UniProtKB/TrEMBL annotation:
Similarity comment: family membership: Belongs to the mannonate dehydratase family.
Record has Lyase as a keyword: yes
Organism: Lentilactobacillus parabuchneri
Pathway in which the depicted protein is active: Carbohydrate metabolism; pentose and glucuronate interconversion
Protein name, per record: mannonate dehydratase
Alphabetical list of NCBIfam families matching this protein: PRK03906.1 (NF003027)
Enzyme Commission numbers on file: 4.2.1.8
Amino acid sequence: MKMGFRSFGEEDDPVHLSEIKQIPGVSQAVTALYDVAVGDVWPKSKISQLKQQVQASGLGFEVIESVNIHDDIKIGLPTRDQYIENYKQTIQNLSEYGIKVICYNFMPVFDWLRTNLHYQLPDGTNAMAYEPNQLPDDPNEMIQSILNGSKGFEMPGWEPDRLARIQHLFDEYRNVDAEKLLANLKYFLDAIMPTCEKYDVRMAMHPDDPPFPLFGLPRIYKSRDDMLKIEQLYESRYNGFTICTGSL
């Protein structure tokens, strides 16, 4: 097992790579390109710069979290094939710079959600928390709460261009239930797995975060039984899972 630590970008993350390097046992930085639009191919030049930045701090560069999946793929729109081709090219590009694992999710609309970004633990430290009874009925109210709590930090999955399309996304997902979302995941896996196998890059699907119903949106990775279903969609050692202790 190799220990890694998440980095949200040297320019934006207050915890710098040089500080991650000081954590006992940590040998890897888990990071991403945060300035590439979802659905676009990750340019080799930017991947190279990111690798150099990580390795200059003395950390390994083998895991990406995340290469996000365009909603057209999750919804199953006719435009999904072009976005899948872009994703396959990104997998190939990342493999050329030593990436072995890509974390991703297949959650509709929201990459993750919490009701409190500054929950105080008994020892005085802060953590993020989710309480179902604190989830507002209106998703826009919840979005505003997240933005207020982030204090100006642009968090992955909560980019302004994405938030501007929230109502449109809810409309697009109106006819997507769990069965259809799972079928769209199979379509995606069928398309990318040969590329993963060719270039030795494992996909690690992140659980629904949190693994509870949200605003009527379908959830397909919230339990062990769900994992077995996803595993059977495409039986390959490259079709794997992220075991997030904050979600399962």
